[in-house]
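tool_call: predict_structure(chain=1)
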Amino acid sequence: MDQPPSPRFDALSAVAAAVQQGQDGAADDLVRLAGPAVLRVVRQILGTHHPDVPDVAQDALLSVLDALPRFRFGCSVSHFIWRVAALTAMNARRRLMLRERLTQSGVETDALPAQRSSPYDQVAHARHRQAFLRMLDELPQAQSEVLLLHVVLGYTVAEIAEAMQIPLNTVRSRLLSAKAVLRQYWQEHPELVELAEGAS
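tool_result:
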């Protein structure tokens, strides 16, 4: 019989436990402490200057508070928050796709860590990243989630397994399946191969 995961603790654990216990002011403390990290995740997925970043970040924090009563500390609270924020932002991005298609050329996006020496490089990288995110929308959710966490947010395979509470081999399998499905797309956009492989 599988054993329950051992508790994982970090700096937010005490505050998260206080929220679960219904202590006065604990939810406000968690929102204040987690807010900057949630905002960074949402910006990475939607783009720094996307007009819906504040609203989606707020929705993500509300989703964290809504999901927290069911959280059992199988991973660190930080990983739990990042995962909820990433899924909330990805779902919002899917809902906004029609609008983004109309305004895409004017939306700046955060890039994966890279050196950019000219405005041309910044525009090119933004387009590559938008193409990669569109590509994620075409995958099954389980595959797109691990690819998002791995490539866009920079999680290692071990960190994804911890955050999602799934075996390492499951993460690897989903990553391999996602890359296999997208191989044709990558042949058309070779720069995306570099993004995916560079995060491995």
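agent: The CA atoms of residues 38 and 85 lie 6 Å apart. Proceeding to next step.
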